[in-house]
């Protein structure tokens, strides 16, 4: 689906899933947040086929989640590296929420393999905050239709 046709999709979750809803796309993003930028780094970390990796990277670039930048190692041909854009950086919350959900509902016996911490070293978690910065339980959050709803 093209970017212009995505505008016709009313549900923001459905639009988002069109861009990042493939399993490998989220894992590519996880590796990008861990510092991977090059095709071979993603391939080695994920064990994904080259065809699938190429397709997923292309989609993430097309929708502005990753930016393709040329680089050349001495004596080698020019290649591309993939760098998170601001749009891509915003997906860190999505991955954090998925990890938090997995740790809570699909825990490993050994415990979590990753902990999210603040710059002061304190554990952090994702939550809803209202406009007054008061934490709101997910059970209390309600979806309300806006004038844009058809």
Automatic annotation (TrEMBL):
Pfam families to which the protein is assigned, alphabetical: HxlR
HTH hxlR-type domain mapped to chain residues: 11-110
Asked if the Swiss-Prot or TrEMBL record annotates the protein with the keyword Transcription regulation, the reply is: yes
Q: Which InterPro entries match?
A: HTH_HxlR (IPR002577), WH-like_DNA-bd_sf (IPR036388), WH_DNA-bd_sf (IPR036390)
DNA-binding among keywords: yes
List the keywords (alphabetical): DNA-binding, Transcription, Transcription regulation
Which Gene3D superfamilies does the UniProt entry name for this protein? Winged helix-like DNA-binding domain superfamily/Winged helix DNA-binding domain (1.10.10.10)
Q: Which SUPFAM superfamilies match?
A: Winged helix' DNA-binding domain
Name of this chain's protein: Helix-turn-helix transcriptional regulator
């Amino acid at each position: 689906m093209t970017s212009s046709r995505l505008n016709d999709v009313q549900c923001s979750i459905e639009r988002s899933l069109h861009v990042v809803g493939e399993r490998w796309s989220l894992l590519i993003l996880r590796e990008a947040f861990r510092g991977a930028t090059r095709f071979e780094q993603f391939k080695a970390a994920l064990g994904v086929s080259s065809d699938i990796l190429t397709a997923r990277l292309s989609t993430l670039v097309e929708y502005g989640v990753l930016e393709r930048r040329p680089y050349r190692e001495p004596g080698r041909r020019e290649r591309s590296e993939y760098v998170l854009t601001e749009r891509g950086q915003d997906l860190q919350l999505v991955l954090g929420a998925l990890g938090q959900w997995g740790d809570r509902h699909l825990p490993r016996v050994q415990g979590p393999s990753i902990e999210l911490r603040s710059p002061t070293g304190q554990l952090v978690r994702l939550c809803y905050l209202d406009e007054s910065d008061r934490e709101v339980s997910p059970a209390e959050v309600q979806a309300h239709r806006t004038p844009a709803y058809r």
